[in-house]
Write a structure and sequence with these properties.
Layout lengths: L3 E6 L3 H12 L3 E7 L3 H7 L5 E2 L2 H7 L4 E4 L6 H10 L3 E5 L6 H14 L3 E4 L6 H11 L6 E9 L4 H6 L10 H16 L3 E9 L10 E8 L4 E7 L8 H5 L13 E5 L3 E4 L3 E4 L12 E4 L7 H13 L9 H20 L3 E2 L1 H7 L7 H12 L16
Helix pairs in contact: 4-5, 5-11, 8-11
Length: 386
Amino acid sequence: MTSISIGLIGAGLIGRKHLRKIAEHPDYTLAGISDVNSDAVAAQYPEERVYADYRAMLDEARPEAVIIASPNQLHADAGVECARRGIHILVEKPVTDTAEAARVLIAETRRSGIKTLVGHHRRHHDQVQQLRSLLTEGNIGALVGVSAIWAVYKPDDYFKAAPWRTQPGGGPILINLIHEVDFLRFTAGEIVAVSAISSNRQRHFGVEDTAAALMEFENGAIGTIIASDSAVSPWSVEQGTGESVEFPFSGESPYRFIGSHGSLEFPTLVRWGQTDGARSWNRPVISQRLFATTIDPYLAQLNHFRDVIRGAASTMQSVEDGARTLIATLAVTEAAATGARIDLRDRYEALSGAFASSPAHARKSHHDQQAHLRPERPEPQSAGRS
């Protein structure tokens, strides 16, 4: 089968990671790279066609698909230009920088009919897929709640290299917590309301270094999460999965999913439950480690994007779905600033105005996707997977 011609917009840290994965993939051919620092990028990739203006790359190299890894505020414009040319897009997270920009991108991609995928790579982990299946099957009964920690210490060089990281928008909520928000939406169900508090008392920058959020899910579950880039700990999904050499492997689980008939740790996939369907604090709670393979999520994401482009799979995350993750994450910042509980349902509904289908159809489609996370009268489960 003919390989897919693909271009890259933005050759920064994540863009270079995509370039390495494309070079290793037999089903893609790199058509060109676009970056404002074109001379430096051309020196680093002398064999490739490098453009300062991504529009020139789109028109001259004419790729079938593009990965958009430019700064967040440029995602929407680049996506719209691709859509108008019929070019499929994989947009790095966040899908855009504002909800309004997301609505514009949604409308344009739906008019053009291009295939879209948002780069929340964590969805492609085998452990994530297995966790989602376990929750879908009611393996721990009805989901009661989830608690999570994302805590690392970013060194001073991280901020010196990009001073914007010390200002609003550069803190752990929009840079890191957005991964956790998307992960929870994908595994635990839709988030319908958030409350939050934040602090900058560790670094005293103009942006938070620590935040805590309370999340309410459509299925009635409640979640708590704390995120900090100024704490030394082994608790982050990056460390727990060993997905990247930049984050030394800890093997620890920063997530606890608690259910009416058992609990699960993630990413270690340790299941806790009681034998013979028992549910009593007077009975021992027994652990069992479940098996899941470890894969490269970026390679798996490229495989999925290939299948979406070729019509062999439906997208795991459209720009519409990515916009919901953005809205929920932005609401955490708003809730921390105002002290208010933010209900997200009207904000999700506002996205429907960008859809070609009716709002009722949009609601039904999303309801159908989330229905598996609301098991009715789950049967008691044993300590092992059924």
